[in-house]
From TrEMBL:
It comes from Rothia terrae. The keyword Transferase applies. Belongs to the MoeA family. Its cofactor is Mg(2+). GO terms for biological process: Mo-molybdopterin cofactor biosynthetic process. GO terms for molecular function: metal ion binding; molybdopterin molybdotransferase activity. One of its GO terms (cellular component) is cytosol. CDD domains: MoeA. This is Molybdopterin molybdenumtransferase. Keywords: Magnesium, Metal-binding, Molybdenum, Molybdenum cofactor biosynthesis, Transferase.
């Protein structure tokens, strides 16, 4: 299925037979219809790591005036190259100097780094290349006003930073979509820019649970498990700089969950809801049952089914219309590794496209490192967990290798914690040592 902007909204929730790639596209298409967040202005000091929503062009030349690159003496062009090398010392020109300076034959001025080059002057000789002539020098080596100094000849323009050398007015400083780093902030601050328009990140409500998930961290009761998914999912979102996240625990009671969704939608106004578990084929599938019931009442559009990947086969996506704002709900399978795989392969790809997270969500090619032949599944894309290493070929060229860690099961979270990527095995393919594989770096 190829999706386009013209796709009918309800078609997006009909039965689908999908690859992971097609599912990522469908999630994106659904979010694009309901999840627009207007960019907002933030103080530059808060913009580190945020994604710029509009291009910024330079309003000023930088430097905005010719200035000295050294602490030293400033000379006129004629004095820079004249045969006679001894000069009278005039008054100081410190950084920030705003006065005017008379141009007098054979008079040089002590000038400090960053100070404006006065009209009629042309070159700077660093103080350490000067020699006092019958005059005292201060601790920095400067001769006092009225004293005499010997300077070597210099080319006009030496140690002068000229207007616009770094930035010409009108130059594109930062493109829209750039993740703002410290250097960008420096450049923008240097232009006197105090606020920037950045993309907003969604406020997310996360639901985990099921009857077997113990509500507290007291000693584990028979048949119960601790909640691994809430910290896992909150951490994955935080790695993508989505930090306005509220995690809530639910039981297996689908009716109760419908009520919780209604109350929480009003209380938290989430831009997005993510659920974990309760969506497959059992009797107590709280998430699927609750959303299907809401759909029957016309309060949601929803789809639950399978995509052709392992782990993470069972999936669900819905849009709630409980409040005026339509809220997308992404329902991930309960097995923690299935949540990790689906987030990495599909959810963050969709969130990145819709909310402009500025994360690198695309796969790269690596060389599989394996002692045995590795076979994928017949009709599903399989995502194994693995580690990457940068190695070198005999000719010195760099090569990225990837090695599978642990088994294929979706409950094997510990092996995943020792991995940094997913290794994608295409349906029906067999891989030998050194075969090319696609890998997806885990969010970190
Ligand atoms: N008859 C079928 N049964 C199952 C199918 C199927 O196609 N037909 N699919 C299997 C696959 S594959 C997966 S994946 C799971 C997905 O099931 P759910 O999304 O409904 O998830 P749960 O049943 O609620 O939980 C699955 C598993 O994960 C554990 N879990 C749940 N929440 C947490 C948590 N917060 N922290 C740690 N572990 C959690 C839960 O105890 C289960 O063991 O369905 C299969 N079944
Ligand atoms: O699709 Mo499930 O996540 O394999 O265990």
């Amino acid at each position: 299925m190829m999706l386009s902007a013209e796709d009918n909204f309800s078609e997006l929730f009909s039965a689908h037979d999908e690859s992971p790639q097609q599912y990522a596209q469908r999630l994106t298409a659904i979010l694009q219809r309901v999840a627009f967040l207007a960019p907002h202005r933030v103080p530059l000091a808060d913009a580190l790591g945020q994604v710029l929503a509009e291009p910024i062009d330079a309003a000023l030349d930088s430097p905005s005036f010719d200035n000295s690159q050294m602490d030293g003496y400033v000379l006129t062009a004629a004095d820079a190259l004249s045969d006679a090398r001894e000069f009278t010392v005039g008054h100081d020109i410190p950084a920030g100097f705003q006065g005017s300076v008379d141009v007098c034959d054979r008079v040089v001025h002590p000038i400090m780094t960053g100070a404006p080059i006065p009209q009629g002057f042309s070159a700077v000789v660093p103080v350490e290349r000067s020699q006092a002539v019958d005059s005292e020098v201060d601790a920095q080596g400067f001769v006092a006003e009225g004293g005499r100094v010997r300077l070597p000849d210099v080319e006009p323009g030496t140690f002068v930073r000229t207007v616009g050398e770094d930035i010409r007015r009108g130059t594109r400083l930062v493109d829209a979509g750039t993740v703002l780093g410290a250097v960008h902030l420096g450049v923008l601050a240097g232009q006197g820019i105090g606020e920037v328009l950045v993309h907003r990140r969604p406020r997310v409500l996360v639901y985990t649970g099921g009857e077997e998930v113990q509500a507290d961290s007291d000693s584990l009761q028979a048949g119960k498990i601790y909640d691994a998914n809430a910290p896992l999912l909150t951490g994955l979102l935080a790695a993508d700089k989505i930090t306005e996240v509220t995690a809530r625990r639910i039981t297996d009671d689908a009716e109760e969950f419908q009520g919780i969704l209604a109350t929480d939608s009003a209380t938290y106004s989430p831009d997005l809801v993510v659920t974990c578990g309760g969506i497959s084929a059992g009797r107590y599938e709280v998430v699927r049952n609750a959303l299907n019931a809401l759909a029957k009442k016309g309060e949601a559009d929803c789809w639950f089914g399978h995509i052709s990947q392992q782990p993470g086969g069972p999936q669900g996506v819905s849009v709630l219309s409980l409040t005026e704002q339509r809220i997308p709900v992404i329902s991930l399978p309960g097995n923690p590794v299935s949540t990790l795989v689906t987030y990495t392969r599909a959810v963050r790809v969709a969130l990145n496209a819709v909310y402009f997270l500025g994360v690198t969500d695309q796969p790269v090619t690596a060389q599989l490192s394996t002692t045995d032949t590795v076979k994928g599944l017949d009709a599903k894309t399989q995502f194994r967990r693995g580690t990457t290493t940068m190695g070198f070929l005999p000719d010195g060229a760099a090569v990225l290798t990837a090695e599978i860690k642990g088994g294929a099961g979706s409950h094997l979270l510990h092996a995943a914690s020792e991995s940094n990527c997913l290794i994608e095995l295409e349906p029906g393919r067999e891989y030998k040592n050194k075969d090319a594989v696609r890998i997806w770096y885990l969010p970190d």
